[in-house]
Amino acid sequence: MMTTTPGDVLKAIRAQSPLVQCITxxxxxxxxxxxxxxxxxxxAMVHASEESGDFTAVVGALTINIGTLSPSWVxxxxxxxxxxxxxxxxxxxxxVAHFATPYRSGVAxxxxxxxxxxxxxxxxxILALSGRSGSGKGVDAGDAVAAAKDGARELxxxxxxxxxxxxxxxxxxxxxxxxxxxxxxxxxxQVTALGCALTCLTGAGIAAVEDPxxxxxxxxxxxxxxxxxAGKTADGPGSFAWKFLDALNALAPEDVSAELVGYR
Length: 264
Ligand SMILES: Nc1ncnc2c1ncn2[C@@H]1O[C@H](COP(=O)(O)OP(=O)(O)O)[C@@H](O)[C@H]1O
Ligand SMILES: Cc1ncsc1CCOP(=O)(O)O
Ligand SMILES: [Mg+2]
Description:
The protein has 264 residues and is α/β, with parallel strands linked by helices. It has helices spanning 6-16, 29-39, 52-56, 71-86, 102-112, 123-129, 149-159, 194-208, 212-233, 237-250, and strands at 19-23, 42-44, 61-65, 91-94, 118-122, 162-166, 170-173, 178-181, 260-263. It has a single domain, classed as 3-Layer(aba) Sandwich (UDP-N-acetylmuramoyl-L-alanine:D-glutamate ligase). The site of magnesium ion has 5 residues, from helix 8. It catalyses: 5-(2-hydroxyethyl)-4-methylthiazole + ATP = 4-methyl-5-(2-phosphooxyethyl)-thiazole + ADP + H(+). Its EC number is 2.7.1.50.
């Protein structure tokens, strides 16, 4: 049984409103900030190396996303991750399309070697990160979550991380424990940067709750529940996007745990 339920994670985020430093990408900045605010957390997009490490010292958690990379951003990321280690702050890594170019792959490897608290990616990203071949198309997944489970377990052990693989049904593991999370909506992959925003929200979870495994499972369940709710009345990706923010905001803690279908 989980010591901290997904409903507890939602309550903790709302009660503490943790400050989350999101070093994300140009596409995801606005939607990620809105997702954090709607859920009850406090986002800040601070990425310049001149200040990123100083900022990490005062946040609840840091999130790193390589969606729109450049050398100056990588410097900002590295500075922030080093500060996270110095100040014992948990951090999340989102390896967006890391297999797409040699530059991206190299940066992802370097970041991974710093042992993120949580790695969150779609099935194609996690498959490729574990050294298996997949069929990702840029930032979009082309593989099923089930295909990435073995790789996720291996990555979790190798990097001492929690690994979250998302898709139609999500999978989370720390190498020993594992959970499956349902919910969401087929509109979710049709709205850009909802995965990136989930990575930022995972930062809020690990800032608010002690156990990063329970925190990650809880955040995925919150997302799944809000996605399911918004999908009930959405007419397409456009109305889904705003209904999803409203659903995150309106979510009741007692309605979150239904998304959690397997935990051991
Ligand atoms: N077909 C689907 N049905 C329901 N939920 C989905 C589906 N595809 C993705 N999701 C949800 O969308 C969110 C983002 O996941 P995903 O699309 O895998 O990330 P990314 O945008 O990084 O590729 C997750 O909460 C996931 O559960
Ligand atoms: C379209 C795009 N291009 C570079 S980053 C990005 C956003 C990807 O967002 P997500 O991984 O959440 O689909
Ligand atoms: Mg993504």
